[in-house]
């Protein structure tokens, strides 16, 4: 699987988080529950300060690597963390160099396949912050395109 390398400035996310792990399918359950909530609770209308409708699926605060607990955040990119709506949290994603993978196909299978490749092939991961962007190309879950950003060590 090919990737491109991008250097990104720091940015901010407002959303909801959960502490989870990939062990025993816990992350699938926890992350799935947040995805259910983002639509049933209409988070997009409750976060008026968002920069776009793109959804950021973000992985932070790794204890070690993908086999250990981490924090998962689902939310939207915002200009700052000054006016966080009630019930939401704010997070800063530090500036970093990223490998950007693009996966295509049916959600969630294409994303799972992308992560399996990353877990077994990314030797230079920093485990500071990784994220997926669900933009207009991800609107059709049967034929989606999603970018996965993997933070690199300097």
What does this structure look like?
With 154 residues, the chain is an alpha+beta fold. It has one domain (3-152): Regulatory factor, effector binding domain (Multidrug-efflux Transporter 1 Regulator Bmrr, Chain A, Alpha-Beta Barrel), CATH 3.20.80. It is 21% helix and 42% strand. It has helices spanning 26-40, 43-46, 109-121; strands at 3-8, 11-20, 55-60, 70-78, 89-93, 96-105, 125-134, 144-152. It has an 8-stranded antiparallel sheet.
List the helices and strands and how they pair.
Blueprint (H helix, E strand, L loop, with lengths): L2 E6 L2 E10 L5 H15 L2 H4 L8 E6 L9 E9 L10 E5 L2 E10 L3 H13 L3 E10 L9 E9 L2
Antiparallel strand pairs: 1-6, 2-4, 2-5, 3-4, 3-7, 6-8, 7-8
Radius of gyration: 15 Å
Helical fraction: 10-25%
Kindly report the CATH topology: Multidrug-efflux Transporter 1 Regulator Bmrr, Chain A
Largest sheet descriptor: 8 strands, antiparallel
Q: In percent terms, what proportion of residues is strand?
A: 35-45%
How many helices in DSSP terms?
A: 3
State the low-pLDDT regions, or none.
none
Short description:
The protein is α+β, with helices and mostly antiparallel strands. It is built from three helices and eight strands, in the order ββααββββαββ.
Please describe the structure with a list of short key phrases separated by commas or semicolons.
single chain; 154 residues; alpha+beta; Multidrug-efflux Transporter 1 Regulator Bmrr, Chain A; 8-stranded antiparallel sheet; 3 helices; 8 strands; 42% strand; globular
């Amino acid at each position: 699987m090919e990737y491109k390398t991008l250097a990104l400035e720091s940015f901010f996310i407002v959303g909801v988080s959960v502490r989870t792990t990939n062990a025993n399918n816990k992350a699938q359950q926890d992350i799935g529950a947040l995805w259910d909530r983002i639509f049933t609770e209409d988070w997009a209308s409750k976060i008026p300060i968002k920069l776009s409708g793109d959804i950021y699926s973000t992985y932070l605060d790794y204890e070690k690597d993908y086999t250990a607990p981490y924090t998962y955040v689902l939310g939207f990119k915002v200009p700052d963390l000054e006016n966080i709506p009630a019930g939401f949290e704010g997070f800063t994603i530090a500036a970093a160099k990223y490998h950007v993978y693009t996966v295509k196909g049916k959600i969630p299978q294409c994303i799972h396949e992308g992560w399996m490749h990353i877990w077994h092939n990314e030797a230079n991961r920093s485990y500071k912050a990784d994220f997926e962007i669900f933009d207009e190309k991800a609107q059709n879950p049967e034929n989606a395109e999603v970018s996965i950003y993997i933070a690199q060590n300097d």
